[in-house]
Design brief:
With 247 residues, this protein is α/β, with parallel strands linked by helices. It is built from seven helices and seven strands. It has a single domain, classed as NAD(P)-binding Rossmann-like Domain (Rossmann fold), CATH 3.40.50.
Length: 247
């Protein structure tokens, strides 16, 4: 029987792959057979070494999505058919004190760069008549308001909308576009929350699974959405949150 979850023969770009969720996704996709280009504003050498040690194939690409058009030229004739947009930043401040610079920095990286990376990827696949898959990393804050993270919340609401809009346009070309909404995961972005005893307890008390998520908890969902098993799944935002949104 065909292995529906195999990514053999596929080439993937995973952004923000030097650490955390992006690193775990890159490793899982390589373990499923994909050749993975690990992109980040810092070198992804650790991720590449981990993949190669496990018998997979990967390479590192330096790219800084503070420039929303940073990926405009990387897909041309490069053979990609999978894209995972994971790169993102967060800024925390009370809304009444939130600066225009912090607003613009987060929106540019988390939303504007994501859209134009998708655009460049989709344009290349459509021109080649080639199917593919995009997975965008959204957030619980694609559905909720959050606290002290107004630009991050706005950007992640936008990621959900862009995902659905592109899914509608590109399904006819055989390109699926989905998103994953991670719950509270142990990453650099949540370090401040985990170091705050009151906030950490409040979060854990609401999660039915009773624990913070690990980056590996997101990786399998990304592999699924890139695989043949999900060929009729598009426009979805899948919650991987230990039951947080069901509470």
């Amino acid at each position: 029987m065909l292995n529906l979850f195999s990514l053999e023969g596929r080439k993937a770009l995973v952004t923000g792959a030097n650490t955390g969720i992006g690193q775990a996704i890159a490793e899982a996709m390589a373990a499923s057979g994909a050749h993975v280009v690990c992109a980040g504003r810092r070198a992804c050498d650790e991720t590449v070494a981990s993949i190669e040690k496990a018998g997979g194939t990967a390479e590192s690409l330096l790219i800084d999505f503070a420039d929303p058009l940073a990926a405009r030229d990387i897909f041309k004739d490069a053979g990609f058919d999978l894209l995972v947009n994971n790169a993102g930043i967060i800024r925390r401040e009370d809304a009444v004190n939130f600066s225009e610079q912090d607003w613009d920095d987060v929106i540019d990286t988390n939303l504007k760069a994501l859209f134009f990376t998708c655009q460049a990827f989709g344009r290349e696949l459509i021109a080649k008549g080639k199917p593919g898959a995009i997975v965008n990393i959204a957030s619980l804050l694609s559905f909720q308001g959050g606290i002290r993270v107004p630009s991050y919340t706005a950007s992640k609401h936008g990621v959900a909308g862009v995902t659905k809009g592109l899914a509608n346009e590109w399904a006819k070309f055989g390109i699926t576009v989905n998103a994953i909404a991670p719950g509270y995961i142990v990453t650099n972005n949540t370090e401040a929350l985990r170091n705050d005893p009151e906030r950490s307890k409040a979060i854990l008390d609401r999660i039915p699974a009773g624990r913070w998520g690990e980056a590996e908890d997101i990786a399998g969902t990304a592999v699924y959405l890139c695989s043949r098993a999900a060929k009729y799944v598009t426009g979805a935002v899948l919650n991987v949150d230990g039951g947080w949104l069901a509470r």
